[in-house]
From TrEMBL:
<keyword id="KW-0378">Hydrolase</keyword>
<keyword id="KW-0479">Metal-binding</keyword>
<dbReference type="GO" id="GO:0003676">
    <property type="term" value="F:nucleic acid binding"/>
</dbReference>
<dbReference type="InterPro" id="IPR012337">
    <property type="entry name" value="RNaseH-like_sf"/>
</dbReference>
<feature type="domain" description="RNase H type-1">
    <location>
        <begin position="206"/>
        <end position="334"/>
    </location>
</feature>
<dbReference type="Pfam" id="PF00075">
    <property type="entry name" value="RNase_H"/>
</dbReference>
<comment type="similarity">
    <text>Belongs to the RNase H family.</text>
</comment>
<protein>
    <recommendedName>
        <fullName>ribonuclease H</fullName>
        <ecNumber>3.1.26.4</ecNumber>
    </recommendedName>
</protein>
<dbReference type="InterPro" id="IPR036397">
    <property type="entry name" value="RNaseH_sf"/>
</dbReference>
<dbReference type="InterPro" id="IPR002156">
    <property type="entry name" value="RNaseH_domain"/>
</dbReference>
<dbReference type="GO" id="GO:0046872">
    <property type="term" value="F:metal ion binding"/>
</dbReference>
<dbReference type="GO" id="GO:0043137">
    <property type="term" value="P:DNA replication, removal of RNA primer"/>
</dbReference>
<dbReference type="GO" id="GO:0004523">
    <property type="term" value="F:RNA-DNA hybrid ribonuclease activity"/>
</dbReference>
<dbReference type="InterPro" id="IPR050092">
    <property type="entry name" value="RNase_H"/>
</dbReference>
<keyword id="KW-0255">Endonuclease</keyword>
<keyword id="KW-0540">Nuclease</keyword>
Length: 479
């Protein structure tokens, strides 16, 4: 082109991601593998089982230096061959194994469970869905619809996600009157009648104002909201993805729109028992997508000559308008002709994606037959007692996984599995902690639990007893 020769290249690097001509992603995966080796060596140095750093600190280092590198571009490279992905899984698993002090012979599912980190395929699926949601949230920034990019775009109904808006007014010009006087009273020591009397006292000075009550309800995965203005009751059925915050904030948004278009009075008070929704409106500088939409609606109402203020009122205190709005919101799904609003926020769908990823991991863990699964049925990480050494943490981890040096050194030496010299039974963690006659006196003196799951549970007293047992029997250095 002109006086310049355009060379043909088999790969190109864009924003740190290497694209190859065959779309195999292998060059990029090899690049990640190579760049992570020095980081793995850092964890290896810090993870000495006698004097190394604590497990949680090492896991934070792994997530910061290695997992963040692997996650970058995950939505792209997750489509590559399984054999290529195993390269990254090996790097990831090595970092986790070193961090928790496990052996190479340990089942991968067990070391990930101990660390509280899901498998890469589940993690990458979650990240991909969240990227799709972020793209749907800001469609004005895209040249093509996310629907054409992600195969599973419709799984979470992302067409109905609340999109971002540009603020109509700069934050320093926004002025909103939110009355939180009733919130200053301590709820535990303030009776319903006291709340109601003070509420009526406040309203006595605002008799020219029109009142609009808002409320929302989440019952049995059914979400509804309602606004009350005099004899006008309006109900909406909402998406079951909505949180209670989203539902309450949407009710305030609808109340502003109703006040702007349907209420004759120019002075209006919107009353809500959702403190979090009202507080989010006060954040003019970094509002959520829904709060910004409310601020824009408020500004539009101001341009139309409406003076809208807001007031927090306590729920379930026999304030008539609030009670009516609460009842209407709960009955929205049973009403004859309720309005529907299918929208939900990015925060709502992000929470749902995370929950489904966690459930997917839980279901995968339930199907495992490892020794760890026999005592730990959940994927949520178990904490260690406070102020214990790296050596003690490693011992607890290895006992929970069921692979210790004394019971599994035969795998490294290529020998036959050992038997207990005292009992003649196979030498296992369960045998040592609950059955072996050699340590019967120590177990009785310390009152060590009879069940292995109790000895190694996250209950601090049991773990402290187990560590004393290992110390008294001289087994701590053999684990």
């Amino acid at each position: 082109m002109g006086n310049h020769t355009i060379k043909s290249q088999t790969q190109v690097k864009i924003l740190g991601v290497i694209f190859d001509s065959k779309a195999s992603w292998r060059p990029y995966i090899q690049h990640i593998q190579k760049s992570c080796l020095s980081r793995i060596n850092l964890i290896k140095t810090l993870s000495h089982t006698a004097w190394g750093a604590q497990t949680q600190m090492l896991l934070k280092i792994h997530k910061s230096l290695i997992l963040s590198k692997i996650d970058y571009g995950a939505s792209l490279i997750s489509t590559t061959k399984p054999s290529h992905l195993r390269i990254l899984e090996s790097v990831h698993n090595s970092g986790i194994r070193l961090s928790i002090g496990a052996f190479r012979s340990n089942p991968i599912s067990s070391i990930l469970n101990i660390a509280g980190v899901p498998p890469l395929d589940i993690r990458w699926s979650e990240l991909t869905f969240k990227i799709a949601a972020r793209m749907a949230r800001a469609p004005q920034c895209l040249h093509s619809s996310p629907n054409l990019i992600f195969d599973n775009y419709k799984k979470y109904d992302l067409d109905n996600i609340l999109t971002t808006e540009i603020s109509i007014s700069p934050p320093w010009l926004i002025s909103i009157n939110i009355n939180l006087d009733l919130h200053q009273l301590p709820k535990k020591s303030t009776s319903s009648s006291q709340y109601r009397n003070l509420f009526m006292e406040i309203l006595s000075s605002k008799q020219q104002h029109a009142l609009i009550y808002t409320n929302a309800s989440v019952v049995a995965n059914r979400v509804g909201m309602a606004i009350i203005h005099g004899d006008t009751h309006i109900q909406w059925k909402l998406s079951n993805k909505c949180s209670i915050y989203t539902a309450e904030a949407l009710a305030i948004l609808k109340a502003i729109e109703f006040a702007t278009n349907k209420v004759e009075a120019n002075q209006i008070i919107i009353l809500s028992d959702s403190l979090s929704s009202l507080m989010s409106i006060q954040n003019h500088w970094k509002p959520t997508d829904l709060a910004r939409k409310i601020l824009n609606a408020h500004t539009t109402a101001s341009f139309a000559g409406k003076q809208i203020s807001y007031m927090w009122i306590p729920g379930h205190c026999n304030i008539e308008g609030n009670e009516l709005a609460d009842k209407a919101a709960k009955q929205a799904h049973l009403a004859n002709n309720p309005l529907t609003s299918p929208v939900f926020t990015y925060q709502d769908v992000k929470r749902i994606i995370a929950i489904e990823a966690q459930n997917q991991w839980e279901n995968k863990w339930v199907a495992q037959t490892t020794k760890l699964h026999e005592i730990k049925r959940t994927t949520y990480p178990w904490p260690f007692p406070a102020n214990i050494s790296r050596k003690q943490e490693t011992a607890i981890t290895r006992l929970r996984i069921g692979h210790t040096y004394i019971t599994h050194q035969h795998l490294m030496k290529g020998e036959e599995p050992p038997d207990c010299t005292q009992c003649g039974s196979p030498l296992t963690v369960k045998h040592i902690l609950t059955e072996c006659r050699s340590y019967e006196n120590e177990r009785r003196e310390l009152n060590l639990p009879d069940q292995l799951a109790d000895s190694l549970s996250p209950e601090q007293r049991n773990l402290t007893t187990t560590l004393k047992f290992l110390h008294n029997t001289g087994l701590l250095n053999k684990i």
